[in-house]
């Protein structure tokens, strides 16, 4: 799964449940990006979409959930 808009959040759905009051579906997604691997986030239906597995390409760029594209070692 990945988030449809805003910051990136590639991951795997590890749980699905319904809310108590209005029975809307929620998805718990575990991030698969190495920089923040294991982080969990709850999304509502419509915020995420299923994606096909992509070939990973080797890159020196680091991934940041808030959209920062460049990474510099201190």
Protein traits:
0% helix, 74 residues, two-stranded antiparallel sheet, 5 strands, three-stranded antiparallel β-sheet, mainly beta, 32% strand
Described by strand count, sense and barrel closure, the largest sheet is: 3 strands, antiparallel
Q: Radius of gyration from the CA trace?
A: 14 Å
Show unreliable segments: none
Overall outline = globular
- Which range best describes the helical content: under 10%, 10-25%, 25-40%, 40-55%, 55-70% or over 70%? under 10%
Order of helices and strands: EEEEE
Kindly name the structural category: mainly beta
Average residue-wise pLDDT: 79
Distance between the termini: 33 Å
Number of strands: 5
Strand order of the largest sheet: 2-3-4
The number of helical runs is 0
Q: State which percent range the strand residues make up.
A: 25-35%
Quick summary:
The protein is mostly beta strands and 74 residues long. It has strands at residues 2-3, 11-18, 25-31, 40-44, 48-49. The strands form two sheets. Strands 2-3-4 form a three-stranded antiparallel β-sheet, with no helix packed on it. Strands 1-5 form a two-stranded antiparallel sheet.
